[in-house]
Specification:
By secondary structure, the protein is mainly alpha-helical. Helices cover about 55% and strands about 5% of the residues.
């Protein structure tokens, strides 16, 4: 990594030349400016006040995603496996959007805001537990039985598998929702 050093002052007086060197070994009239690559690696600090300012105690986290999953109860809205799979995909998109909306305006490096598979899985567990979806395993089985192998390898197939694992986790780890 290469750091740029730029001169801050153009004219140095006799008094300035008597100043002792700064702690970093550079004269006081020089400033270190990080390169773009170094800037990306710099840790960004978010205070608790930044986060608390964004939280609304009157709302349920991920309510939009919970409501979208509940749409599967309305038989007229998602009848076919593809329609149901699209609902599962929309739930994942809503999760991403709500996280993005939450951090919007907070001074944090956007490159560091990423979710791994385990985090996405836990969010799906939460959403499945909070939803009022009836016969959730039946919806999943219907999608698995009547969708093509190709569909199962796409993004919505990944969403289907993630929701299936989330439901199995809820069944196996009953204390998660109690």
């Amino acid at each position: 990594m290469m750091t740029q050093v730029v001169q801050v002052k153009d004219n140095i007086t006799a008094e300035d030349s008597k100043k002792p060197e700064s702690k970093n070994g550079l004269d006081d009239e020089w400033e270190i400016i990080p390169t773009e690559q170094e800037e990306k690696l710099r840790p960004s600090f978010v205070t608790l006040a930044d986060i608390q300012e964004k939280l609304d105690p009157n709302t349920i986290p991920y309510q939009k995603a919970i409501s979208r999953l509940d749409l599967l109860n309305a038989r007229a809205l998602a009848k076919t496996p593809i329609q149901k799979l699209n609902v599962f995909g929309e739930v994942t998109n809503i999760i991403k959007q709500e996280i993005s909306d939450f951090w919007n305006g907070v001074n944090v490096n956007q490159d560091k805001l990423s979710l791994d598979g385990d985090q996405i899985l836990m969010l799906h567990v939460y959403i499945a537990a909070r939803s009022g979806l009836q016969n959730m395993f039946a919806h999943l089985q219907f999608c698995q039985e009547f969708s093509t192998p190709y569909i199962k390898t796409t993004r919505v197939g990944y969403c289907l598998t993630t929701l299936e694992v989330a439901l199995k986790l809820l069944v196996d780890q009953r204390e998660l929702i109690d």
